[in-house]
What we know:
Layout: H1 2-18, H2 22-30, H3 35-38, E1 51-56, E2 59-66, H4 69-74, E3 86-95, E4 98-100, E5 108-114, E6 117-125, E7 138-140, E8 145-152, H5 155-159, E9 167-168
Parallel strand pairs: 2-3
Antiparallel strand pairs: 1-2, 1-9, 3-8, 4-7, 5-6, 5-8
Amino acid sequence: MKKFIFSFLLLFFMQIFLGTNLHARTYNSYVSLPNSLINKPDINEYTDGGALNADINGQNLKLVVAKKPETVIKGLSWRKKIPFDGMIFFFDKPLKVSFWMRGMNFPLDIVWVRNNVILGVTENVKPEPGVPEEKLKTYPATGEANIVIELSAGRVKELKIKEGNILIL
């Protein structure tokens, strides 16, 4: 047990002080996965506004793609319901992004991803109708993310999504 705690703390401090993405390396050292599953996806494969199939924890998700700036900014705002299972946002490089609930009509779960490894989740983010844009709450990523997934509130719990899970595209 002491060895496990020491290893965990060592990895934690290495990540903080060296700024490296150890999630993928740590996960890959325990589970044999091809590098193509844990490396940055080629976003050119996907059509903005199109749908793609993804897998987390053996659960297939159909997601609408947002990769152009105008699509990313609009996101799921002003829609009456969530399309398919949700929306997936792609960024050219890992960023410390924040999301807000501008024009949203339903609560969301947000999944923060870097190079196909789940960094963390923000659950049950509620719409703020009538709140001016400058006063809307922002929800920052739990680390530098190059992929963000928005799902209906409650889906993270239902799918048992947690830090360290792998997103397969």
